[in-house]
Structures are given as structure tokens and as C-alpha cells.
Design brief:
Layout: H1 12-16, H2 34-38, E1 59-61, E2 64-66, H3 74-79, E3 85-93, H4 100-113, E4 119-127, E5 133-138, E6 152-158, H5 164-177, E7 180-188, E8 196-200, E9 205-208, H6 209-223, E10 227-233, H7 240-245, E11 250-255, H8 267-278, H9 286-295, E12 304-309, H10 313-329, H11 334-342, H12 350-353, E13 369-371, H13 372-381, H14 388-405, E14 406-411, E15 424-426, H15 433-442, H16 444-449, H17 451-458
Parallel strand pairs: 3-4, 3-7, 7-10, 10-11
Antiparallel strand pairs: 1-2, 4-5, 5-6, 8-9, 11-12, 12-14, 13-15
Helix pairs in contact: 4-8, 5-6, 8-9, 10-14, 10-17, 13-14, 15-17
Length: 460
């Protein structure tokens, strides 16, 4: 096995538990306007910090961070060197959206487990109901029968949680103030596939995929090390574009190819199990932490979940580039390629959306995310495609994904998700003109693999 001993008891009885998802809440997708995806990509500013230690809070007007306060406390903060823990778990709760109430339940669940000397649970929580007022919290178990709060809370003012500076500052602050042998970051908010994630309703903003990359790369540079795990408690984020963007800042990505039903991630379960194992004689390995994240999602709200090995994304890019070039140069009729794409496993499944208790809004272009292996398999098995080199490149890509990229994948039965393999990619079969330039010019995976040219050639 690629990582220490990885094993999850995949129990469908536990997943279903006699319930279905009818009436459950799913996220509401915010509309994407041209200005949002066509703007200049933002990067964290080296001389701007939102660390509570130096009281430079990220208050945003539009897209511009405004500095507040001075740097008098910086040296004191830098001199503070606590004893490293085994693990630090950082959770970025973007409550500046319609998911805030669910996030508060997750935050409370983490607090009830609480930190100890071997594992630290640290959160940044934006309160949408308070106009974006944001706190950084070192979560500690309550005392006096759970009635007295012991968590350490620092107010950092109003934040734009969709700005890469805000994320970068939280990650670097958390890693420096709570040093550990291993780090996990959980991003909790909306996910929008290849486009981006963490939209902030107060700032009317979204963190584009290249901005997520810039935040994480900057944090890696400043702290001198990668994260072990980045988990997305968000819809549609187990995609190739995001995994490739994070290849230099984390080893593993945990996410879902499909939408995520509110409450699927059980924070109480995975936090308590991680704490239990880190204090056991065997300790908590990276594999153990991934196992617990998977097990915590094995409930009736599960749709899809997977673990992507970001260390193998450069190899994935090589295979995808070969597949892209064969697609670009093939003499196969375009309608056959489109048919192979169209019939592949796709997401924002109508069967799921129809059972939700709320209207998810406009799902375009996220409904054009398709499973990578399913796309390749359809090309291989299409009898009307006679291009053997194209089929071989598809086979090479599919094998690499299944053998190298995906550590573990599970999906729910009877939800039109049976051809999910764990990683999706933008493969539109409807007009993609609005997103083509963004994809070709701003998505790193496109530049590395020519997949953007495939998108442009075969979208109707």
C-alpha cells in the first residue's frame, strides 16, 4: 500500500441505516458572473498579515485588504516556541454563507472533544450572522459538566474568507503557534468544482482555484513544510484541477466528487477517534487520520468521498497530457468523442437534487464535472472509435488513476453514482464559452496538460 497500512471497513449497512436522503439539505450554489471569473488572480501580499498576535486584521473593501494596527507584538509572537504536538488540526469555517448553522454544530462537536498535549484542534470561524466578525479558537474541552468554556478565543475582526490572504494567514498562524509533527487542514464552505471554493456572501466573493493555490503555496513557503492532509467539507472538490493546484502544498486531498449533504462529515466521530489513537501506544499515523475521516462519513448522508494522492498529480498530468494530445489530433468524428464524454459519470445528479429539501440554484458549470476514469473508459469501449493510440492513452490514464492517484473511494448505491472512481475533471458537453478562457488561462492543470484545448474543441 502507498501509505502505511490503510484499511476502511466499508459498511453499506452503516451508510444506509434504514434512511434515505429525501428532505435533506444540500448547499445552494451562488451564481457565477463574468466579473468574478475574469478578474485578475489575487495572491497573498507578503507584507500583510492577519495574525491576532500583531492585531493586523484582514478587513476587506471589495478585493483590497486593509491593514489595521501595528507590528509591536510581532517579535513576542516569533519568540514564543511551544512544545510540538503530534498533530494539529486546523479548521477553516467560512460561516459567511448559508451553511453557518451547520458549521456551529461542527465547531461545538470539536470543542466537546477538545485538544490535549498530543493533538490540537484550532479553528477560524467567520460569523455571517454578525456581519463577518471572525474568531480564532483553540478548542479545549469544557469543564464543570460541560458548562464552562475553556477554549481560547481571539477576535480578529471582519474577514473576507474568500480572499487568499485570509486563508494563508490562518494556515501560517496555526502552524507556527501550534507546531506539530503532522498537520491537517479542513476547509468548510461551499465548493464549486474546478472554478473555486469558499464563496463569501458578505464580500460577494469567491476564492478561485488559482487563488487557493497561491494561498497554500505561500503558506508552505513561509512555514517551510507541506500539510499532510487537506480535507474539503464542501461539494464537488475531489477534482483534478484542485488536486493539481495543491500538489506542492499537501500530500493528500480528501473530498467528494458529488455534492455534499449537510452533516455528512461527523466532526465528533473523527476528532474523538483521532484523539483516542494519538494517545494510544500505536499512535496516530497519516493513514490512521485518513481512515478516521473516511469512517466518519459512512452514514446515510454519504454520496461520494475519496482520498487523492497529490504526490502523484505530476504523473497524472503526464498521462492526461498524452490523452489530450491524442484527442486534439484524432481523426475520430467529434460527435463520437462528445458521446463518450456525455455518457460518462457526471455530478450534480438530478436524482440527488430532486430529493433535497431546498433548491440548489444554478448548478452550471459544476454539472459538467465528470469522473476521469469514466471518461477514459467510454473512449476505450466506444466501438465507433477506431483510433488505437487514443484508446491506449485513455487506458494508460485510467490505470494510473486507479493504481496511483486514488487511495480510497466510496459512493452510495442507487444514486446514479456507480461509475465514480474518486476524481473528476471539467468535461463539458454543452456550450462552455463563458468558462473556456478562464479554464485555459488560469487553471494550472490546463496549461500543463492541454486539457483546456480539449474542452474548447469538444464542447458543443
Amino acid at each position: 500500500m502507498k501509505i502505511e497500512s490503510f484499511n476502511v471497513d466499508y459498511d453499506f449497512n452503516r451508510i444506509h441505516n434504514g434512511k434515505d436522503i429525501k428532505g435533506e439539505k444540500i448547499p445552494v450554489f451562488r451564481p457565477l458572473d463574468d466579473e468574478m471569473i475574469n478578474r485578475e488572480v489575487r495572491t497573498p501580499e507578503d507584507n500583510f498579515s492577519s495574525s491576532p498576535a500583531d492585531r493586523e486584521n484582514p478587513v476587506f473593501k471589495g478585493n483590497t485588504p486593509q491593514r489595521i494596527g501595528g507590528t509591536a507584538e510581532r517579535k513576542k509572537d516569533e519568540e514564543f516556541k511551544p512544545t510540538p504536538s503530534k498533530w494539529t488540526v486546523l479548521v477553516y469555517f467560512n460561516g459567511n454563507c448559508d451553511l453557518e448553522s451547520d458549521m456551529k454544530e461542527s465547531l461545538n462537536a470539536l470543542e466537546k472533544v477538545g485538544s490535549d498535549d498530543k493533538i490540537q484542534f484550532v479553528a477560524q470561524f467567520a460569523h455571517g450572522d454578525k456581519g463577518g466578525e471572525t474568531e480564532r479558537i483553540h478548542l479545549k474541552k469544557p469543564s464543570w459538566m460541560g458548562l464552562k468554556t475553556n477554549s481560547e478565543i481571539e477576535d480578529i475582526g471582519k474577514t473576507n474568507m474568500a480572499h487568499p490572504q485570509t486563508l494563508k494567514d490562518f494556515v501560517t498562524w496555526g502552524m507556527k503557534k501550534f507546531p506539530a509533527e503532522h498537520y491537517m487542514l479542513i476547509l468548510n464552505g461551499h465548493g464549486m468544482g474546478f472554478v473555486g471554493s469558499l464563496p463569501d456572501d458578505h464580500a460577494d466573493d469567491i476564492m478561485l482555484t488559482p487563488e487557493l493555490k497561491s494561498a497554500m503555496d505561500s503558506a508552505t513557503k513561509e512555514t517551510g513544510r507541506k500539510l499532510d492532509v487537506v480535507g474539503f467539507d464542501s461539494c464537488l472538490m475531489a477534482n483534478a484541477e484542485t488536486a493539481y493546484a495543491l500538489k506542492d502544498s499537501t500530500d493528500f486531498l480528501v473530498g467528494s466528487e458529488e455534492v455534499v449533504i449537510s452533516g455528512n462529515w461527523d466532526y465528533s466521530e473523527f476528532a474523538s477517534k483521532m484523539k483516542e489513537k494519538v494517545n494510544s501506544t500505536e499512535g496516530l499515523t497519516v493513514a490512521n487520520s485518513l481512515e478516521e475521516l473516511m469512517k466518519s462519513q459512512q452514514n446515510y448522508k454519504l454520496l461520494t468521498t475519496s482520498i487523492i494522492d497529490c504526490r502523484d498529480m505530476p504523473g497524472f498530468a503526464d498521462k492526461l497530457k498524452n490523452f489530450s494530445e491524442k484527442l486534439i489530433n484524432t481523426q475520430t468524428p467529434a460527435q463520437e468523442i462528445r458521446r463518450s464524454f456525455r455518457d460518462a459519470q457526471h455530478y450534480c445528479q438530478p436524482k440527488i437534487l430532486e430529493q433535497a429539501s431546498n433548491n440548489p440554484g444554478n448548478t452550471s458549470p459544476m454539472d459538467q464535472m465528470r469522473d476521469v476514469v469514466s471518461v477514459a473508459y467510454n473512449v476505450i469501449t466506444n466501438d465507433n472509435i477506431g483510433d488505437t493510440e487514443l484508446k491506449q492513452s485513455a487506458l494508460d490514464l485510467a490505470k494510473f488513476v486507479k493504481e496511483q492517484v486514488i487511495i480510497f473511494e466510496m459512493h452510495r448505491k442507487n444514486m446514479d453514482l456507480s461509475n465514480s472512481s474518486g476524481i473528476s475533471i471539467y468535461t463539458p458537453t454543452t456550450s462552455s464559452e463563458k468558462y473556456t478562457d478562464y479554464y485555459q488561462n488560469k487553471i494550472d492543470l490546463s496549461a500543463a496538460t492541454r486539457w483546456g484545448e480539449v474542452v474548447k474543441k469538444f464542447s458543443a
